[in-house]
Design brief:
alpha+beta; SH3 type barrels; flat; U6 snRNA-associated Sm-like protein LSm1; mRNA processing
């Protein structure tokens, strides 16, 4: 009977090992790589990791190789369907062409998030992320 209960912990990652995965991080980065290992905190080890950056109808890739991801930074983890991976309707370009646009978008988002956090702090009393007591 216990074998019918679905995993609700990092043990559910067991079937994902040695498969190509997409990981979206809290800072918005999108990483593609082969999941090689994980632990009870959902810290992940990705091999052959590529960071994909999107802008308009194009994308670029930046190779990172072996990548260790702290579990608390993972927003989304999903398996990539290898049969459909090459059928995306976007055109791949060199990373140096997309990088300035991507950095501008990241900076704009950072400013917008700071303004939102300040407004929530002043008007509703929410504490800012990364504030006192948030360090490890």
């Amino acid at each position: 009977m216990d074998s019918l209960i679905p995993f609700t912990t990092s043990g559910s990652l067991m079937d994902c090992v040695d498969r190509k995965m997409l990981v979206v991080l809290r800072d918005g980065r999108k990483l593609h790589g082969v999941l090689r290992s994980y632990d009870q905190f959902a810290n992940l080890v990705l091999e052959d990791t590529i960071e994909r950056v999107y802008y308009g109808n194009v994308f670029a890739e930046n190779r990172h190789g072996l990548f260790l991801i702290r579990g608390e930074n993972v927003v989304l983890l999903g398996e990539i369907d290898l049969d459909q991976e090459d059928e995306i309707p976007l055109r791949q370009v060199d990373y140096t062409l997309v990088e300035p646009h991507h950095k501008r978008e990241v900076d704009t988002k950072k400013v917008r998030e700071e303004v939102k956090a300040q407004a929530l702090f002043e008007q509703k009393g929410f504490c800012k992320e990364g504030g006192e007591g948030d360090g490890y």
